[in-house]
Amino acid sequence: MSPQVLPSDQVSGKKVLNEGVIFSDNLNHRCIIDGILIAVKQSVKKVKVVRYKHNNVEHLEQLLSNSDAERKLIVTDGIFSLHGHIAPLDKIAVLAKRYNAMVYVDDAHATGVLGENGGGTGEHFDVNESIDIQMGTFSKALGGAGGFVVANSDIIEYLRYQCATYVFQTAMPPGIAAGLKTVIEIIKSEYGKKMRVTLKENAEYLRQQLNEIGYNTVGSKSHIIPIFIGDKEKAASMASFLKDANILSFAYYYPAVPQNEAIIRVNLMAQHTKEHINHFLNVMNDLRKKNNLI
């Protein structure tokens, strides 16, 4: 089981929410959705699930204000994996305090990337103290394996005994643990900070250039940059063309995204140079002009 699924499957479980409402962002990752479904099924008392419009704090507040549930849990990705949007955690934190709700953040794509020290979305918005449950993975920016959950001692103690995907997993190999320890030190170092600045600059440059040659980057604000194509066959054709040009960038289409909203997803790295990015832009421009794909 993916380390991303491990906490998302079970953190939202019956101890955290008995007799309450889960408020879930409409574009949350599939593993979060599966975790919520398990939580609802396993809860002793009734748990209701309400989905709010993606990153829409006005809609979220409307739903919170209309709820008289004893317990409320707001669940969101930090960075959304397909569209690169960043959850407005600063505003969500205000609503959570106002309506006495807990906040759960899946920071799989933000860990190591956002925040002054790479601490993720909470650090980016300076609202770490307002996040009740933060989970992440070591398999993305950190390049290792495994995952983590940060919460109060009661929740962590519960997970140690009740989270089956933790209790019955194989222990992390010492070599991976040692490697992750080193990576975390790098992420927090001055070099790590420079890498995050470079990554941000790369993303801003690529988005700007893609927009200038006519592509829609779907409002991305992070290093994950979707390029809207729409048609499934066109997206698949573009991904194949890019592969032939030594560029690995995958097409995503239904059911990963809604019908007729296929995208090409670009994942940037700090190690990408302007030469790399310009090569990609040249290929994308050729696709636009020569292949009538847009």
Structure, described:
- With 294 residues, the chain is of the alpha/beta class.
- It folds into two domains: 5-184, Type I PLP-dependent aspartate aminotransferase-like (Major domain) (Aspartate Aminotransferase, domain 2, 3-Layer(aba) Sandwich); 190-290, Aspartate Aminotransferase, domain 1.
- 43% of the residues lie in helices and 16% in strands.
- It has helices at 5-10, 30-42, 57-65, 89-98, 121-125, 153-162, 164-167, 174-188, 190-212, 232-244, 274-290; strands at 20-25, 47-52, 71-77, 102-106, 133-137, 147-150, 224-230, 251-252, 262-267.
- Strands 2-1-3-4-5-6 form a six-stranded mixed β-sheet, with helices on both faces. A three-stranded antiparallel β-sheet has the order 7-9-8.
- The longest helix has 23 residues, at 190-212.
Estimate the mean pLDDT confidence.
90
Distance between the termini: 38 Å
- Helix tally equals 11
Strand order of the largest sheet: 2-1-3-4-5-6
Shape estimate: globular
Number of strands: 9
Brief write-up:
By secondary structure, the protein is an alpha/beta fold. It is built from 11 helices and 9 strands.
Defining key terms:
three-stranded antiparallel sheet; 11 helices; 294 residues; single chain; six-stranded mixed sheet; 43% helix; alpha/beta; Aspartate Aminotransferase, domain 1
List the SSEs and their pairings:
Layout: H1 5-10, E1 20-25, H2 30-42, E2 47-52, H3 57-65, E3 71-77, H4 89-98, E4 102-106, H5 121-125, E5 133-137, E6 147-150, H6 153-162, H7 164-167, H8 174-188, H9 190-212, E7 224-230, H10 232-244, E8 251-252, E9 262-267, H11 274-290
Parallel strand pairs: 1-2, 1-3, 3-4, 4-5
Antiparallel strand pairs: 5-6, 7-9, 8-9
Helix pairs in contact: 9-11
